[in-house]
Fold these 3 entries.
Entry 1:
Amino acid sequence: MYSIFHFFYSLYLKKEIFTNIQKLENFPFDNNLLSCKNIGIFPDLAIKVNKDSKFFTGGELIELKDSVSYSISSFNSTIPTRKKEIMKIISSESSSIKKQMVEAGDDVFSLPIRNVYYLVRGKKKGNTKVCLVNGSFFETISVENLISESFSQVLEDRLKQSNIELNPETKDILHTIFSNQENFAKVRTIDKASVKLRFRIMTEVKAEGNLLNSKKYPEIKDDTLNFIIPFNNKKEEDIIYEKFNLVFSDKDMKHFNIFKIKHYFNGYFIVFQVQF
């Protein structure tokens, strides 16, 4: 059986390694759970898809975020999100990600929308925090709105500096056009230019979204491994507990501190926390 819950269990079994391993990418992840591993491209890890289980679908995508402080390292090119379309990740038949997934036995397109998680590690003054967190902790508004509103700020600044006025309809059109990340990701080739140009989007986490920040989220203690999952209602909450109880034994459960935290912008999350 494969799922983000089983992946977290594999981390729990080796949790002490987080305190001394130099690079997070060198952690001895359980390859039996994974359909692909990458360095420098999204996703860093992907969980295998379960063929016959509707309760545990598997297929989750994971990005590693490692830092030598309690600040989360910036997201380069890939804006953090809670779900991704697998078709947008596997853009061609020659995709190394698709090749790895197929070789691992996945029916890649049987799960077109994948949940995204981030494995975040921070270190400070000899202490370590590790969190496996759902992407909704960072995606509190849609990626399209984030890009569009950011572009809107640039546009308004330039119009003000240039003393130019545009009617609201034109502004709305421009906001709509510049709301897609793919527009910025392409390399642009200009006649007679000896270089190509590509705009990259870099995303930095604000204090309100930094779960390593002790002032904002004091519940996330030093030297702990945390599994952080959102829920919107009692039914979703019960399903999370049921899945966790299916993966972890009663003996394991005694080591966990289980509680809820409230995100500044995005509701409540369940936290399963264990000391190193």
Entry 2:
Amino acid sequence: MSKEVKKGNTIEVDINLEFTGTVRNYSILIESQYVPTTNDKAQKHPVKLDGDPIQIKANFIGVKGSVIKKFEVVINEKKWKIEDIIFKYEEIEVNIPVPYADFDLKQIAA
């Protein structure tokens, strides 16, 4: 069953990252809010919702040829992930709107 949420509600977000090669720096924003990580993970970080879809934005800086093996976002026990992104240059930007339905969320009127 879908979890009903309103714009402005706070949800918990988990992030898991795996790399091969050298990734020097990265930043992850969920709904334009920075999510701090420790050892390439974030657990139960609160994020305030801004409406459907959930905006995921991440910037990675690394050595050409390095690989983002896994970039996973978990909300409402549902996973969204991308895998095996190869650095063709020294920077990668991920900017993806993910529909609420992918996280088993349903927006209701405020």
Entry 3:
Amino acid sequence: MLAQRKVLFEHIVADGEQVINKRVACLLNVHGFRELVPRLGPFELYVLDKLEALVHPKQVLDTHMYADTPEIEALLQRFELSMLRLRPAGEWKEGGGDIGHLQDASLQHGFCSVPDVEALQTLLVSDDVDLKLVHYQYPGYEHFDMVGLADRAIGFARSKVDEVRKAIRESPLIAALTAGNIHEFRRQCLCALDIVMEPPVDTQECST
């Protein structure tokens, strides 16, 4: 999803030199990527390194492999999801003078503030809000937790759940990964970025 939206997200992938060097070191160890690394920009390095972490799940414990703003934003755009981002109670009224915000493409500017607890309660029980999260920050990284209600289930609308599941089922990249076909998985990663593996694996058109 992120790779297919390079034009929109390339400018917000802003790794520092140390993290870029980490990504380069990882990708230089991958046959098929090694020859491509010198001509990849920060965006391509970011996407390929994070996808490669799925092949080696232990790497996800490294903080530079965590899902970050670009991935979250790409997910919201792809499935037209709305997100309620709530700050911890100890931070209410700080900074923007509210307790959080709602992000939804249907809103003017895409955002609106959540001014108080009454507005929050209305949003928490709304079926129109897909993701309901508490957002807090530790030194060096940010974290999100799902909000739950004791007396009712909350989550995506059924139609959106079905759409997400359909996208997963039909993804050749995910199919290759779950089948353990790592060579094809990596080829699909490159296809998503419109990069041709050298030498080409075959002449079949890439499907993303």
